[in-house]
Design goal:
The protein is mainly α and 259 residues long. Helix content is 66%, strand content 8%. A hairpin with a 2-residue loop joins β1 and β2.
Length: 259
């Protein structure tokens, strides 16, 4: 029989792991962001989008096992981390760099061809790796923050809405319907805000904008449907591991609440 103190520590460690995966995937979205686009079949995706569906899986697990308030808390922490990333990028860009003659060769990135950024700037010459990451990331972080706030809070609210409607049954309904709807919000917002200025200037066609939105949503929707099985397995085993009955949620101190 596990003690209350050990059980409380087990629950907090599990929450920490889920929170760590969530924050890591979200940070990767902002750091590597649109530094590269990849082709997956008919989908054209920013490489930063690849780990992003994990954030919705983690929030759904936390909603199910720890409740709405814990999930909202994690989303708020993620928002603060977004601000921190933006602050570090701005700070790093504002501090004078080491003179080029004193810079090690491995810190210089040679660009073979001009790179067009979402804000319309063109990188045409050799730049430092940090400057390239800053140029391709800093402009997209603001769009990411808006989409993040809207989509993640939407996901948490919809998850518990469908849980109330189904009276705690049919996990697949609240998982898929909350994620599919919130990811639509995320895909539309992040693409339109990131590339909106370029579209208004005529630098990107409306059709290309639709392709980016469609590709982002198609990938996220596919991942949302595919994670239904892993979600069921994770909930089943974690409920046993955390000593939680159906519709019970873990609370601080080893206590339980009702979802």
């Amino acid at each position: 029989m596990i003690s209350r103190e050990d059980l409380g520590e087990r629950r907090e460690r599990t929450f920490l792991v889920l929170a760590g995966i969530f924050l890591c995937a979200m940070t990767l979205l902002n750091v590597i962001g649109i530094t590269r686009f990849v082709q997956l079949g008919p989908m054209a995706l920013a490489v930063g989008v690849l780990p992003y569906p994990l954030t919705f899986l983690c929030t759904d697990l936390i909603c199910e096992l720890y409740g709405k308030s814990r999930a909202n808390f994690l989303v708020t922490v993620g928002l603060g981390l977004n601000f921190f990333i933006l602050l570090v990028l701005l700070l790093g860009n504002s501090i004078p760099a080491v003179p080029a003659e004193n810079m090690p060769p491995w810190q210089i990135l040679q660009l073979a061809a001009p790179v067009a950024l979402p804000n319309g700037d063109i990188v045409e010459q050799s730049v430092g790796l940090y400057q390239l990451i800053y140029a391709t990331t800093s402009g997209a972080v603001f769009a990411s923050m808006l989409a993040y706030v809207a989509a993640q809070y939407c996901d948490v609210q919809l998850f518990h809405f469908w849980k109330r409607v189904t009276k705690g049954k049919h996990l697949w309904i609240r998982n898929n319907f909350s994620t599919l709807m919130s990811q639509m919000v995320d895909s539309v917002m992040v693409i339109t805000v990131t590339f909106g200025a370029a579209f208004m200037r005529g630098d990107i066609a409306f059709q290309a904008l639709l392709v980016l939105i469609g590709s982002n949503y198609l990938f996220k929707a596919m991942m949302a449907l595919l994670d239904t099985g892993p979600l069921y397995l994770a909930v089943y085993y974690l409920r046993k591991y955390l000593h939680l009955q159906p519709n019970e949620t873990a609370c601080p101190g080893g206590t339980v609440g009702t979802a």
